[in-house]
Design brief:
Blueprint (H helix, E strand, L loop, with lengths): L12 E11 L4 H9 L4 E7 L3 E8 L2 H12 L4 E13 L8
Antiparallel strand pairs: 1-3, 1-4, 2-3
């Protein structure tokens, strides 16, 4: 599988986005595995009709948008539809872990 570049995360923010990735059904299993292996990505569900529920976590909105564009460019992906986006500033206490 093609290795995706890793996106740097800013240390003072966190952005979490959920999306539905529509894929061609014959590519479903391979894309589920590939998306699950991306830094900051988790696959939470799938439907055999060709839908994957995915969350992305990154340090900026720009990094999220870059990752969504990368996902949309993968072979077998029809579309990635953003469902929800949340952002918050990290406190010094959050960065201690």
């Amino acid at each position: 599988m093609k290795q995706m570049p890793r996106l740097a995360q800013a240390s003072d923010e966190t952005h979490i986005t959920s999306l539905v990735v529509h894929v061609l059904p014959p590519h479903l299993a391979a894309l589920e595995q590939q998306l699950g292996g991306l830094e900051g990505a988790q696959v939470h569900g799938r439907h055999d009709s060709g839908k994957l529920v995915v969350t992305l976590e990154a340090g900026s909105a720009g990094a999220i948008l870059e990752r969504v564009a990368q996902i949309e460019g993968l072979p077998g992906v029809i579309n990635a539809s953003l469902v929800y986006q949340h952002a918050e500033r990290m406190t010094p206490e959050d960065n201690r872990s």
